[in-house]
Amino acid sequence: VSLKEIQQKEKDLNAFITVDEEKVLNTAREVQKGIENGELTGSLAGVPVAVKDNICTKGIKTTCASKMLSDFTPPYDAWVVDRLKKAGAVIIGKTNMDEFAMGSTTETSAYGMTRNPINPEYVPGGSSGGSCAAVKAGEVSIALGSDTGGSIRQPSAFCGVTGLKPTYGTVSRYGLIAYASSLDQIGPIAKDVGDCAALLSVIASHDLRDSTSVNLKDYDFTSALCQDIHGLRIGIPIDYFKEGLDFEVRESILEATKVLKENGAIVESFELGMTEYAIPAYYMIASAEASSNLERFDGVKYGYRALEYEGLHDMYKKSRTQGFGSEVKHRIMLGSFILSSGYYDAYYIKALKAKNMIKQSFDYAFQKYDVLLTPVSPGTPPKLGTSLRDPLKMYLDDIYTVSVNLAGLPAISLPCGLNQEGLPIGMQLIGNCFSEKTLLGAAYSFE
Ligand code: GLN
């Protein structure tokens, strides 16, 4: 795709916040030279890629879709961006998202919402809605997203693309602007499972600058694709198929079990447990960490500063009041409340206990199953505007994705059908920690 075509598509889509054409062309020329003289031999040599705008890119604006960072140009690259460059990729631009990755629709961006490429009246999902829309619309074939509670998987499902949230610790968070550090992971978004595996092989690696980065022996995820899934034990958590799940989503997922069975997998339902605690635990932990992480945006060292103020405290207050949007402020207030003395034990500690029990229920499930098959979201994409009017429903709709982050597990979202209006339906495969290869293998059996 040419930059002209991207420009054309962007008029309707708004998947990108920044596309610096001159820089893209310069990089492309350099990469081409590198390929021609044999210096650049990386697996992504010359491949255009889009990067979510909460991942730092040296010399390219990184806004987190917030007014707070509207003028922030990082002086360094995130670890994953460094890996992309070494593999020869050309970064086309920075994709739109919910402000500071808080949201499920890409409507809370300070730079306007992104539309669903399949039907512009609907949301693309979020928070990595820009990355997923850009892939679906063919502006790029691969993109990076980040997933704290579903932000790669849910927009992938809503746009009809494939997205993977790696096991916590597989991809370095160095240079990812933190939302909730104990849950955040960067991951690949692509048209298909093969491209996801190829992109993951580039970005996953051990990094000493992220203390939670794990040193794995093998980072070649593409080798797993053609594995035989004969005898693979697939568990279907019945708790995920109860009330609230859209009929068409349910049918498509049950249809998918047939494919797995035909390929020799053993499919069984079971009760996972603890499901009702996932949303409250997630929103408490994520908001608590967010309130702490976002303290740094005070208008002093970098980021937005109010133009008029009286004294230091007034400057903090006005800069934050004007720089953050309302969803971000909600989370900061909720998080500060939960962490305040007197409420800490009742809310934060309790949420951590629930998190541990959720992890245990998955540990137990993985004694019996290799992979779990679930929906990604209870429904298909809502129309633009509806989630903003009913934020509680939007939070509750994260029910099938947030537990995966609380338990640190890997999960992949892939298309499994269309509803009557032609909107995509996604399914989710969840694996045990560091079983990305098994997951990718199982996912590949659908292609
Ligand atoms: N929708 C969830 C939230 O708003 C998940 C976001 C994410 O994964 N970044 O917190």
Over all CA atoms, what is the radius of gyration? 21 Å
CATH architecture label name of the domain at 3-224: Alpha-Beta Complex
What is the helical fraction, as a range of percent? 25-40%
Shape: globular
Main pleated sheet? 11 strands, mixed
Number of DSSP-assigned strands: 11
Number of helical stretches of at least 4 residues: 15
Overall mean pLDDT stands at 97
CATH class of the domain at 3-224: Alpha Beta
Describe this structure in words.
There is one protein chain. The protein is an alpha/beta fold and about 450 residues long. It is built from 15 helices and 11 strands. An 11-stranded mixed sheet has the order 1-3-2-4-6-5-10-11-9-7-8, with helices on both faces. Helix 8 crosses helix 11.
SSE layout:
Elements: H1 3-13, E1 16-18, H2 21-36, E2 48-52, H3 79-86, E3 90-95, H4 129-136, E4 142-147, H5 153-159, E5 162-165, E6 185-190, H6 193-203, E7 233-237, H7 247-262, E8 266-270, H8 278-293, H9 311-323, H10 326-339, H11 344-368, E9 371-375, H12 386-389, H13 391-396, H14 402-406, E10 411-418, E11 424-431, H15 436-444
Parallel strand pairs: 2-3, 2-4, 7-8, 7-9
Antiparallel strand pairs: 1-3, 4-6, 5-6, 5-10, 9-11, 10-11
The structure holds glutamine (GLN).
Glutamine (GLN) binds at residues 101-104, 127, 147-151, 179, 286, 398.
